[in-house]
Amino acid sequence: MSKQRNRALSAQELDRFGEELDALRARTLAQVGKVDADYIRRVVAAVRWTGLAGRALLYVGAIGGAFVSWLLWPACVLGALLLAASKIMENMEVGHNVMHGQYDWMRDPHLDGRSYEWDIVATGDNWRKTHNYQHHTWTNVRGMDDDIGYGLLRIFPEQRWRPFYLLQPPIAVVFALLFQWGVAIQELRVGRWLAGKTTHRAMWRKFVPVGRKMGKQLFKDYVLFPLLAGPFFLPVLLGNLVANGIRNVWTYVVIFCGHFTHDVEVFPKESVRNESRGHWYLRQLRGSANLTGGKAMNLMTGNLSHQIEHHFYPDIPAWRYASMAVEVREICARYGQHYDTGSLPRQFAEVSWRIVRHAFPSRPRKRRPLVRAEALAEAQG
């Protein structure tokens, strides 16, 4: 059941709503400086040291376990967990946020959003296109945001049902385990190629940089580092596999909880015609959901535990979202707008129910409009 009904806004209210959120953005940007640089550098250091500790423990378990048997599994398990934590922080708190340009003002070539390349099989260039531009510009607009179901899943009843979707519960599990690979091929639009809408030559040109990145990551995790353990390579290889699997599943859960909970909505293309700033904020609000959990949750989600604030302010250092959320939530309440937040178990339960429910034919829910008819008509001319 929906937690709160949204009040439809007049044209004047819509403008004021956007102005208040813009003002919060301006005040926050004015404060960005050394404290933000210190924060991201501490996170980069944490990524480096947890990664080194994780890999070292994998070697201790692999090699030391051959002589002291009880060392094998405890060291390997702890090593895999630390390596997974390192990969999660690198992908979510560093890579994702850096590529949004949150730290471009530092002029640090290692934190340049235009050139950063992260520890994942997806290329940074493709992510900047599919995520930074398409998803953040056209959040949850059908036919414009490819993140709606990622071309595999029917998450909303507004998506046309096909018999293929009956398989989506097990497909969703496989997708979670291989999430980085799904992200990697998203921009390739394999479906268009299979349908004959993209030539083999064009597909090959798009695949070359992706294939190069895939090869680099596979070599690093499953050839180079395991071979450094010599004949004891197998535990190291398995530890890398487990770390990548944990990172994939965690990323999938966080992203899906931020976009596909019970109250999140999708929108038709015509809803964004001549869209005002206030209306854009409303769409971002209704296309996002937050997670509760505190500082540890914020760090390990790259602050995507505040997905609403991230969609409002993608280029502001994400660690500031928690403090901004206090005012964002107050603004939403004053304008009668639902602020979707909840614990990870509750939000993911809602996501899981969506995946199961909409595997079968279903009709769209009737929703009250977010904007009064006259405001929408005025915005669309």
Structure description:
The protein is mainly α and 381 residues long. It has a domain at 11-32 and 120-357. Helix content is 59%, strand content 1%. The protein is built from 15 helices and two strands. Strands 1-2 form a two-stranded parallel sheet. Helix 1 (11-29) runs antiparallel to helix 13 (321-334) and helix 3 packs across helix 9. The longest helix has 31 residues, at 34-64. The protein is globular and about 75 Å long. The two termini are 35 Å apart. The mean pLDDT is 92. InterPro entries: FA_desaturase_dom (IPR005804), Fatty_acid_desaturase (IPR012171). Pfam families: FA_desaturase (PF00487).
Please, what is the oligomeric state? single chain
The largest sheet has its strands arranged as 1-2
Q: Kindly report how far apart the N and C termini lie.
A: 35 Å
Largest sheet: 2 strands, parallel
Using the alpha-carbon principal axes, give the shape: globular
Strand tally: 2
Q: What share of the residues lie within helices? A: 55-70%
Q: Total helix count?
A: 15
Cα gyration radius (Å): 22 Å
Structure class = mainly alpha
Average the pLDDT over all residues and give the rounded result.
Answer: 92
Report low-confidence residues grouped into runs of 5 or more: none
The percent range for strand residues is under 5%
**Helix-strand pattern, N to C?**
HHHHHHHHHHEHHHEHH
